[in-house]
Amino acid sequence: MSINQIQTPLDSAVLETKEQYKVYFKIVSHAFDSLVASLSKKQICGEMEVTFIEQYTELITYSLEAFRIKYLFDDEEKMRIDLTESGYPNFLEFRYLYNDLALKHEYIERLPKVEVLKAQFLESLLKDKQPISDFKLHQAASIIYYTSVEQRYIFKKYIQGKIIRNEKVAGKVSEGEYMVSWSFYDVTHNRPFVCFMYFDLHKTTLAEYTEEIYTVLEQVADRNMSLDMMAYALDKKLPKVLPKKLKKVDLGPLHSVFAKDELEVTHVILKGIIDKTLDISAYAISLKIEEIISTDTFTEGSFFNKQHLQVWKSKKPARYVFTSHRVIQVLYDEIPEFLNSLTQAPIEMETLK
Protein backbone atom coordinates (compact mmCIF):
# COMPACT_ATOMS: atom_id res chain seq x y z
CA MET A 1 0.00 0.00 0.00
CA SER A 2 1.30 3.47 -0.91
CA ILE A 3 2.15 5.81 1.94
CA ASN A 4 -0.43 8.26 0.57
CA GLN A 5 -3.31 5.77 0.44
CA ILE A 6 -3.85 5.23 4.17
CA GLN A 7 -6.83 6.65 6.02
CA THR A 8 -5.66 9.08 8.71
CA PRO A 9 -8.43 10.81 10.72
CA LEU A 10 -7.40 14.44 11.18
CA ASP A 11 -9.51 14.73 14.34
CA SER A 12 -7.71 11.93 16.16
CA ALA A 13 -4.35 11.80 17.89
CA VAL A 14 -4.47 8.02 18.23
CA LEU A 15 -2.72 5.73 15.77
CA GLU A 16 -5.58 3.37 14.98
CA THR A 17 -4.09 1.11 12.32
CA LYS A 18 -0.77 -0.55 11.49
CA GLU A 19 -0.63 1.51 8.29
CA GLN A 20 -0.92 4.76 10.23
CA TYR A 21 1.83 3.65 12.56
CA LYS A 22 4.11 2.76 9.62
CA VAL A 23 3.61 6.22 8.15
CA TYR A 24 4.28 7.91 11.48
CA PHE A 25 7.44 5.86 12.02
CA LYS A 26 8.63 6.69 8.48
CA ILE A 27 8.00 10.39 9.06
CA VAL A 28 9.94 10.53 12.36
CA SER A 29 12.81 8.37 11.07
CA HIS A 30 13.08 10.38 7.85
CA ALA A 31 12.86 13.65 9.78
CA PHE A 32 15.70 12.73 12.14
CA ASP A 33 17.95 11.29 9.44
CA SER A 34 17.45 14.32 7.20
CA LEU A 35 17.81 16.74 10.12
CA VAL A 36 21.15 15.27 11.22
CA ALA A 37 22.47 15.42 7.65
CA SER A 38 21.34 19.05 7.28
CA LEU A 39 22.82 20.14 10.63
CA SER A 40 26.19 18.90 9.44
CA LYS A 41 25.93 20.12 5.85
CA LYS A 42 24.74 23.61 6.82
CA GLN A 43 27.22 23.76 9.74
CA ILE A 44 24.43 24.68 12.13
CA CYS A 45 26.05 22.55 14.84
CA GLY A 46 29.62 21.38 15.40
CA GLU A 47 30.79 17.97 14.27
CA MET A 48 30.73 16.39 17.73
CA GLU A 49 27.38 18.03 18.53
CA VAL A 50 25.85 16.48 15.41
CA THR A 51 27.27 13.07 16.39
CA PHE A 52 25.62 13.26 19.82
CA ILE A 53 22.32 14.54 18.39
CA GLU A 54 22.32 11.59 16.00
CA GLN A 55 22.86 9.15 18.87
CA TYR A 56 20.02 10.62 20.92
CA THR A 57 17.60 10.60 17.97
CA GLU A 58 18.50 6.96 17.28
CA LEU A 59 17.27 6.11 20.79
CA ILE A 60 13.95 7.80 19.98
CA THR A 61 13.47 5.89 16.71
CA TYR A 62 14.41 2.65 18.49
CA SER A 63 11.72 3.42 21.08
CA LEU A 64 9.17 4.07 18.32
CA GLU A 65 9.93 0.69 16.79
CA ALA A 66 9.42 -0.84 20.23
CA PHE A 67 6.02 0.89 20.35
CA ARG A 68 5.13 -0.65 16.99
CA ILE A 69 5.88 -4.15 18.26
CA LYS A 70 4.15 -3.48 21.57
CA TYR A 71 0.87 -2.39 19.98
CA LEU A 72 0.93 -4.92 17.13
CA PHE A 73 -2.37 -6.85 17.12
CA ASP A 74 -3.47 -5.05 20.31
CA ASP A 75 -7.06 -3.92 19.78
CA GLU A 76 -7.41 -2.32 23.22
CA GLU A 77 -4.36 -0.06 23.54
CA LYS A 78 -3.08 2.34 20.88
CA MET A 79 -0.17 4.78 20.81
CA ARG A 80 -1.16 8.40 21.33
CA ILE A 81 0.51 11.44 19.82
CA ASP A 82 0.72 14.44 22.15
CA LEU A 83 -1.82 17.21 21.55
CA THR A 84 0.46 20.11 22.54
CA GLU A 85 3.18 21.71 20.41
CA SER A 86 4.97 18.43 19.97
CA GLY A 87 4.08 15.95 17.23
CA TYR A 88 5.80 13.25 19.28
CA PRO A 89 4.35 10.54 21.52
CA ASN A 90 3.27 11.67 24.96
CA PHE A 91 6.06 11.13 27.50
CA LEU A 92 3.86 8.70 29.41
CA GLU A 93 4.19 6.32 26.47
CA PHE A 94 7.97 6.21 26.98
CA ARG A 95 7.60 5.78 30.74
CA TYR A 96 5.11 2.93 30.37
CA LEU A 97 7.40 1.27 27.84
CA TYR A 98 10.43 1.52 30.12
CA ASN A 99 8.51 0.20 33.14
CA ASP A 100 6.98 -2.54 31.02
CA LEU A 101 10.39 -3.86 30.02
CA ALA A 102 11.58 -3.79 33.63
CA LEU A 103 9.03 -6.54 34.30
CA LYS A 104 9.55 -8.43 31.06
CA HIS A 105 10.66 -11.67 32.74
CA GLU A 106 7.37 -11.84 34.64
CA TYR A 107 5.37 -11.22 31.45
CA ILE A 108 7.35 -13.79 29.46
CA GLU A 109 6.53 -16.47 32.03
CA ARG A 110 2.81 -15.87 31.44
CA LEU A 111 3.12 -16.33 27.67
CA PRO A 112 3.12 -19.72 25.91
CA LYS A 113 6.43 -21.22 24.81
CA VAL A 114 7.53 -20.37 21.27
CA GLU A 115 7.41 -24.05 20.22
CA VAL A 116 3.85 -24.41 21.52
CA LEU A 117 2.71 -21.27 19.69
CA LYS A 118 4.37 -22.41 16.46
CA ALA A 119 2.58 -25.75 16.68
CA GLN A 120 -0.76 -23.99 17.21
CA PHE A 121 -0.09 -21.72 14.20
CA LEU A 122 0.66 -24.70 11.97
CA GLU A 123 -2.39 -26.59 13.18
CA SER A 124 -4.66 -23.63 12.44
CA LEU A 125 -3.19 -23.00 8.99
CA LEU A 126 -2.51 -26.51 7.72
CA LYS A 127 -4.93 -28.78 9.55
CA ASP A 128 -7.95 -26.59 10.31
CA LYS A 129 -7.47 -24.29 7.27
CA GLN A 130 -8.36 -21.34 9.50
CA PRO A 131 -6.65 -17.97 9.90
CA ILE A 132 -4.69 -17.46 13.09
CA SER A 133 -6.74 -15.68 15.74
CA ASP A 134 -5.90 -12.11 16.76
CA PHE A 135 -5.30 -13.35 20.30
CA LYS A 136 -2.59 -15.75 19.11
CA LEU A 137 -1.05 -13.05 16.90
CA HIS A 138 -0.98 -10.71 19.89
CA GLN A 139 0.76 -13.41 21.94
CA ALA A 140 3.37 -13.84 19.19
CA ALA A 141 3.93 -10.07 19.00
CA SER A 142 4.27 -9.94 22.79
CA ILE A 143 6.95 -12.64 22.71
CA ILE A 144 8.90 -10.67 20.10
CA TYR A 145 8.43 -7.47 22.10
CA TYR A 146 9.63 -8.85 25.43
CA THR A 147 12.51 -10.90 24.00
CA SER A 148 13.92 -8.48 21.40
CA VAL A 149 13.46 -4.96 22.80
CA GLU A 150 16.28 -3.82 25.07
CA GLN A 151 15.31 -1.54 27.95
CA ARG A 152 18.69 0.23 27.92
CA TYR A 153 18.01 1.57 24.40
CA ILE A 154 14.65 3.16 25.30
CA PHE A 155 14.64 6.95 25.40
CA LYS A 156 14.14 7.97 29.03
CA LYS A 157 13.24 11.29 30.62
CA TYR A 158 16.96 11.98 31.00
CA ILE A 159 19.88 10.57 29.00
CA GLN A 160 23.46 11.31 30.07
CA GLY A 161 26.22 11.65 27.48
CA LYS A 162 29.90 11.16 28.21
CA ILE A 163 32.37 13.95 28.89
CA ILE A 164 34.85 14.37 26.05
CA ARG A 165 37.94 16.49 25.64
CA ASN A 166 37.63 19.28 23.06
CA GLU A 167 39.95 19.38 20.11
CA LYS A 168 42.50 22.15 20.07
CA VAL A 169 42.48 24.68 17.25
CA ALA A 170 45.82 26.41 16.64
CA GLY A 171 47.05 24.92 19.90
CA LYS A 172 44.22 26.43 21.96
CA VAL A 173 40.80 25.40 23.24
CA SER A 174 38.64 28.52 23.08
CA GLU A 175 35.38 27.09 24.43
CA GLY A 176 36.69 25.05 27.35
CA GLU A 177 38.81 21.96 27.60
CA TYR A 178 35.83 19.61 27.99
CA MET A 179 32.36 19.16 26.60
CA VAL A 180 29.46 17.15 28.05
CA SER A 181 26.11 16.47 26.43
CA TRP A 182 22.79 15.29 27.77
CA SER A 183 19.26 14.91 26.46
CA PHE A 184 15.87 15.00 28.10
CA TYR A 185 12.25 14.54 27.10
CA ASP A 186 10.50 17.54 28.58
CA VAL A 187 7.22 16.43 30.12
CA THR A 188 5.60 19.85 29.66
CA HIS A 189 6.36 20.22 25.95
CA ASN A 190 6.50 16.46 25.24
CA ARG A 191 9.44 16.70 22.92
CA PRO A 192 13.18 16.00 23.10
CA PHE A 193 15.92 18.50 23.85
CA VAL A 194 19.70 18.10 23.58
CA CYS A 195 22.09 20.22 25.66
CA PHE A 196 25.84 20.82 25.60
CA MET A 197 28.13 22.40 28.19
CA TYR A 198 31.69 23.44 27.38
CA PHE A 199 33.85 23.90 30.47
CA ASP A 200 37.21 23.90 32.22
CA LEU A 201 38.01 22.29 35.59
CA HIS A 202 39.42 24.10 38.63
CA LYS A 203 41.58 22.37 41.28
CA THR A 204 40.36 18.89 40.36
CA THR A 205 40.72 16.22 37.70
CA LEU A 206 38.13 14.81 35.35
CA ALA A 207 38.39 11.38 36.99
CA GLU A 208 37.69 12.86 40.42
CA TYR A 209 34.78 15.09 39.40
CA THR A 210 32.96 13.19 36.62
CA GLU A 211 30.32 11.56 38.82
CA GLU A 212 29.60 14.85 40.59
CA ILE A 213 29.04 16.55 37.22
CA TYR A 214 26.68 13.78 36.08
CA THR A 215 24.72 13.92 39.34
CA VAL A 216 24.23 17.69 39.27
CA LEU A 217 23.28 17.72 35.57
CA GLU A 218 20.47 15.24 36.18
CA GLN A 219 19.31 17.12 39.29
CA VAL A 220 19.09 20.62 37.85
CA ALA A 221 19.16 20.36 34.02
CA ASP A 222 16.72 17.54 33.24
CA ARG A 223 13.91 19.76 31.98
CA ASN A 224 13.35 22.76 29.74
CA MET A 225 14.16 26.11 31.34
CA SER A 226 15.84 29.35 30.42
CA LEU A 227 19.56 28.96 29.75
CA ASP A 228 20.27 31.77 32.24
CA MET A 229 18.59 29.76 34.99
CA MET A 230 20.28 26.52 33.92
CA ALA A 231 23.70 28.15 33.68
CA TYR A 232 23.46 29.77 37.11
CA ALA A 233 22.28 26.54 38.76
CA LEU A 234 25.12 24.50 37.24
CA ASP A 235 27.68 27.18 38.02
CA LYS A 236 26.49 27.37 41.62
CA LYS A 237 26.31 23.63 42.30
CA LEU A 238 29.57 22.72 40.52
CA PRO A 239 32.22 24.97 42.14
CA LYS A 240 35.09 23.11 40.47
CA VAL A 241 33.58 23.50 36.99
CA LEU A 242 34.18 26.71 35.05
CA PRO A 243 31.45 26.74 32.37
CA LYS A 244 32.34 28.55 29.15
CA LYS A 245 29.31 27.91 26.97
CA LEU A 246 25.89 26.23 27.18
CA LYS A 247 23.82 25.28 24.17
CA LYS A 248 20.27 23.91 24.07
CA VAL A 249 18.77 22.33 20.94
CA ASP A 250 14.98 22.00 20.82
CA LEU A 251 14.15 19.12 18.44
CA GLY A 252 10.66 20.12 17.44
CA PRO A 253 7.81 20.50 17.08
CA LEU A 254 7.27 17.92 14.35
CA HIS A 255 4.55 19.22 12.03
CA SER A 256 2.65 16.43 10.25
CA VAL A 257 -0.77 14.93 9.71
CA PHE A 258 -0.49 13.46 13.20
CA ALA A 259 0.14 16.81 14.96
CA LYS A 260 -2.78 18.57 16.68
CA ASP A 261 -1.26 21.89 17.80
CA GLU A 262 -2.21 25.46 16.90
CA LEU A 263 1.08 26.36 15.19
CA GLU A 264 1.03 28.08 11.81
CA VAL A 265 3.28 25.55 10.08
CA THR A 266 1.14 22.64 11.30
CA HIS A 267 -2.07 24.29 10.11
CA VAL A 268 -0.65 25.00 6.66
CA ILE A 269 0.44 21.38 6.28
CA LEU A 270 -2.89 19.99 7.52
CA LYS A 271 -4.80 22.33 5.19
CA GLY A 272 -2.59 21.27 2.28
CA ILE A 273 -3.25 17.60 3.03
CA ILE A 274 -7.02 18.19 3.24
CA ASP A 275 -6.98 20.22 -0.01
CA LYS A 276 -4.78 17.52 -1.59
CA THR A 277 -2.10 20.03 -2.52
CA LEU A 278 0.25 18.09 -0.22
CA ASP A 279 0.72 14.35 0.19
CA ILE A 280 -0.34 12.79 3.47
CA SER A 281 3.34 12.12 4.19
CA ALA A 282 4.22 15.83 4.03
CA TYR A 283 5.88 17.15 7.17
CA ALA A 284 8.24 19.78 8.56
CA ILE A 285 10.38 19.82 11.66
CA SER A 286 11.19 23.00 13.55
CA LEU A 287 14.46 23.51 15.38
CA LYS A 288 15.41 26.13 17.94
CA ILE A 289 18.96 26.61 19.22
CA GLU A 290 19.74 28.76 22.26
CA GLU A 291 23.28 29.57 23.30
CA ILE A 292 24.85 31.40 26.24
CA ILE A 293 28.53 32.20 26.71
CA SER A 294 30.65 33.30 29.67
CA THR A 295 32.18 36.77 29.26
CA ASP A 296 33.54 37.41 32.76
CA THR A 297 33.40 36.22 36.38
CA PHE A 298 32.25 37.68 39.69
CA THR A 299 32.71 36.58 43.30
CA GLU A 300 29.88 35.55 45.58
CA GLY A 301 29.94 34.56 49.25
CA SER A 302 31.95 35.48 52.35
CA PHE A 303 35.72 35.84 52.62
CA PHE A 304 36.08 32.24 53.82
CA ASN A 305 33.51 30.80 51.43
CA LYS A 306 34.02 32.60 48.13
CA GLN A 307 32.84 31.18 44.85
CA HIS A 308 33.69 32.52 41.42
CA LEU A 309 30.62 32.55 39.16
CA GLN A 310 30.25 33.36 35.48
CA VAL A 311 28.81 36.47 33.88
CA TRP A 312 26.67 35.19 31.01
CA LYS A 313 25.73 36.73 27.69
CA SER A 314 22.90 35.25 25.64
CA LYS A 315 22.86 35.01 21.88
CA LYS A 316 19.66 35.58 19.93
CA PRO A 317 17.89 32.20 19.62
CA ALA A 318 18.28 30.65 16.19
CA ARG A 319 15.13 29.21 14.61
CA TYR A 320 14.98 26.86 11.63
CA VAL A 321 12.42 24.88 9.66
CA PHE A 322 13.41 21.78 7.70
CA THR A 323 11.05 20.35 5.09
CA SER A 324 10.61 19.29 1.45
CA HIS A 325 10.65 21.59 -1.58
CA ARG A 326 6.89 21.28 -2.11
CA VAL A 327 6.06 22.12 1.50
CA ILE A 328 8.41 25.13 1.33
CA GLN A 329 6.46 26.42 -1.68
CA VAL A 330 3.15 26.07 0.16
CA LEU A 331 4.55 27.73 3.30
CA TYR A 332 5.76 30.72 1.27
CA ASP A 333 2.29 31.01 -0.29
CA GLU A 334 0.51 30.90 3.07
CA ILE A 335 2.82 32.32 5.80
CA PRO A 336 5.70 34.27 4.19
CA GLU A 337 6.01 36.59 7.21
CA PHE A 338 6.72 33.67 9.51
CA LEU A 339 9.37 32.25 7.19
CA ASN A 340 11.06 35.66 6.96
CA SER A 341 11.40 35.65 10.76
CA LEU A 342 13.55 32.49 10.71
CA THR A 343 17.33 32.61 11.12
CA GLN A 344 17.68 31.07 7.66
CA ALA A 345 15.25 30.42 4.84
CA PRO A 346 13.56 27.00 5.22
CA ILE A 347 16.14 24.27 4.70
CA GLU A 348 15.17 21.79 2.00
CA MET A 349 15.17 18.07 2.67
CA GLU A 350 14.36 15.16 0.39
CA THR A 351 10.68 14.35 -0.02
CA LEU A 352 9.45 11.32 1.90
CA LYS A 353 7.99 8.78 -0.53
Question: What would your notes on this structure say?
Answer:
By secondary structure, this protein is an alpha+beta fold. It has two domains: 18-153, no CATH class; 163-349. The protein contains eleven helices and eight strands. It has helices at residues 18-41, 47-71, 91-102, 104-110, 114-127, 134-148, 206-220, 227-237, 264-274, 325-334, 336-340, and strands spanning 158-165, 178-186, 191-201, 241-255, 284-300, 307-314, 318-324, 347-349. The longest helix has 25 residues, at 47-71. It is flat and about 85 Å long. The model is unreliable at 1-12 (pLDDT under 50).
Features of the shown structure:
353 residues; disordered N terminus; alpha+beta
Topology:
Layout (H helix, E strand, L loop, with lengths): L17 H24 L5 H25 L19 H12 L1 H7 L3 H14 L6 H15 L9 E8 L12 E9 L4 E11 L4 H15 L6 H11 L3 E15 L8 H11 L9 E17 L6 E8 L3 E7 H10 L1 H5 L6 E3 L4
Parallel strand pairs: 7-8
Antiparallel strand pairs: 1-2, 2-3, 3-4, 4-5, 5-6, 5-7
Helix pairs in contact: 1-2, 2-6, 4-6, 9-10
